[in-house]
């Protein structure tokens, strides 16, 4: 074989090897700005029909003039359809995309369908919580039936390395409905949390439950909250006591609230659903014609929690025409890019703060808005 022929053969082999490598599936996912959706508007389904995102029956609703957008993150790559090395390389150098190990979004030994089902369950839970929190914010009491699902371990409560069950295991049974704690009748979920938090840890308390149709009084000592444990590093927000049981709440809503988010999953739209319900039920127009986007989980006490992909969500909101973005206070440090021109970032820690922010924007009182330090 001549030298020139050998060079051609080696070149062909190298080229084929390079092409083969670029087509190799890689265990990475690529994140980018996803879709947005106005919770005050309609959402189209796969068959082309459209329906309102939030439907309320049993109470008067009021016209709105603006938009309240929830935001999402687009994820490319899955266990069944991994991205190629070539696609990963292209996205790696795209400043608007973020390449991460795929196990951050698809844990080992899980399928895309399993992750989708969990995301749908999280979305459903966030919708239920949003309805309760919105009505509570508007001064409506939402009674709850609080049923014991199971006792939990100390590890479940945030104490590292402690697998022993809490003291509740010896007396509480699955299916018990909590009626009173320490002589205080429990009506709402928020009330239970407040009463338990005020209990002195490690001291016996009487807990009245409904068991198989009969009332029984159980006595046991609650544990300190995880943050109250020595060396836990927790703060005052999680101080006090914990009963040490997992509860399944069932809420008796005074109005019928239905949220239709189609196939969008995950809990991160909770705050925006809550604000949408408030805007529809409140006589005053919170949005005042403006397009306000945001993100954040919500718990039953109205606290706004951190989410992932904040830069991409801000990008998607700006692309959708939003001029304001409500970001969880705990996500401020995660904003690594300068927000696009024309959108302003407001930091909130609770639904009450988020509602107040919308009221300030409506009134033009912008100086009072809480901001993320270093983000402009």
Description:
- The strands form 8 sheets. Strands 8-2-6-18-21-22 form a 6-stranded mixed β-sheet. It has a 4-stranded antiparallel β-sheet with strand order 11-10-12-13, covered by helices on one side.
- The chain is globular, with a radius of gyration of 25 Å.
- The protein has 2 domains: 28-139 and 254-368, 2-Layer Sandwich (Ribosomal Protein S5, domain 2), CATH 3.30.230; 144-251, PDZ domain (Pdz3 Domain, Roll).
- It has 376 residues and is an alpha+beta fold.
- It has 7 helices and 22 strands.
- It has helices spanning 3-22, 85-92, 112-137, 189-197, 270-281, 310-319, 351-363; strands spanning 25-26, 28-38, 42-44, 50-52, 54-57, 67-76, 83-84, 98-101, 144-151, 177-181, 184-185, 205-211, 214-220, 223-224, 241-242, 245-251, 256-259, 291-294, 297-298, 304-305, 324-328, 344-348.
- The longest helix is centred in the first third of the chain and has 26 residues, at 112-137.
